[in-house]
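Q: ABC transporter permease, please. Structure only.
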Amino acid sequence: MIAVLFRLAWTNLRRDRVAQVMTFVLPIGFFSIFALVFGGSGGNGSTPRVHVLVVDESRTETSAGLVRMLSEEDGLLVQAKARPANATPRDSAVTLTRERAEALVRAGEAPVALVLPAGIDTSLLRYDRRGEKALVLTDAADPIAARMVTGLLQRATLRLSRHAAAEFGGAPDTGSVDEMLPARVETRTVVGEKRTSPMIAFYAAGIAVMFLMFSASAAGGALIEETESGTLERVLGSRVGMTGLLAAKWLYITWLGVLQITVMFVWGMLVFRLPLLSHLPGFALMTAATAACVAAFGLVLGTFARTRAQLQGVANLVILSLSAVGGSMFPRFLMSETLQKLSLVGFNAWALDGYRKVFWFELPVAALWPQLLALVLFTVAFLALARQLARRWEVA
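A: Structure for ABC transporter permease:
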């Protein structure tokens, strides 16, 4: 009897292609996503390249050699030119200045900038604590970038020099280890230097968007219950129709999402001193766009799934995968360049980038247009897809 039941269960599994995918294929895909995010992002355990802006104020053969050495480092993505502020699409890139580099770091375009001041060429490999210091401008949210740039600058200095340390100032005297390095460096934080809880906004946005997706998928799954109870058939026979039904559910889930995100951020403001009141315009725009997009996403899941069990399995896989790649679980700026670009196929990555612009970089509302536009386009695409998937109930 046991053997008969075993064969019966195996036969059912062989006939159910959805169950086969859920059992064998999806776990492999889920494992691969988390391995890429948390396991080195490339299979070799290497850290992602750091985007660094380099300003050469010295303009000497030595400073140019340093820039060249840094450009040859596999761990750095060196940028020495950028378009001016308020430039038009036709304007070409120009050599970076200290002010422009600092502005780009403040705007989140790069996590770190390196300034080689005039006189740096005669200040290398000196151990008398004299001479100019290289200046590192950094974003407090990514301390790894500043340390990597500083370390690779020291290595570039040693590679560039062919002379003994004594020729540039004598033997080192007693002092701190930092003073005995071949290049003296001053690090200055230009973003987040006054934040008491720098990562609160990041976690609030990440957790809020992730749980909002779970709530939206559950609300969208009400269509399955209405189908099983016969309510959907009666609604389709009324003047509302399927389009009206989906519109009503989308508006309700959107309203619920706005309320859910607001409660999360208000709690962050009251308990963790999140500066919500000083960022209300940007918060309101990002919350409305995010909630609308997630609501449409929930309708897609609800119209795609055939049963509640299928909805739960697909929703858990898709939401956790999007959360891992999109930045809810792990900051995107610590991922590889390839994975950072790949994550933009998910709407939640755009939402988190928008919240980061509002609360961390404190950019004006006008700077949110790429994120808002992306969320609007995702919303339209999700609503169109949900309407197409819902046709199966109209023809049934």
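A: Brief note, in case it's useful. The longest helix spans residues 241-272.
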